[in-house]
Design a protein that fits this description.
With 125 residues, this protein is α+β, with helices and mostly antiparallel strands. It is built from six helices and three strands. 38% of the residues lie in helices and 11% in strands. A three-stranded antiparallel sheet has the order 1-2-3. Strand 1 and strand 2 form a beta hairpin. The mean pLDDT is 74.
Length: 125
Amino acid sequence: MARLLSLLLLACATLPAQADEHTVVVKAAAPEKGCVEVEVNGKRAQSISCLNEKLLPNSNTVNRQPPALSGAEATVQRPSNQLGLYNRAALEHRMGNAFGKSVTPQRPAPPPASPLLPAPLLSPR
């Protein structure tokens, strides 16, 4: 038991000597910022929240209106169906259930012929 106690005291005595190599020094920055820089083994690192605060835009740039677009820029930002370009959603709507199966769009079935109504007149060709 005495041997275990002396081994424990010896281990505790060597800890402060090893702690000098891995000492963490925390320095507080200016109080108005609230940022903390940490130095570990000679390498400095800032907190992520502090870096995010520094990356935020100034209050005067947040309230500013975006610049007006020129005519060409406004045209480029219009939807493709207004520019007459290919639009997959419009093509799928036009083709119906024939999309991907046929080149002719889906058409509704002709109405059934009624025995009470006269037959429609066909135009001569």
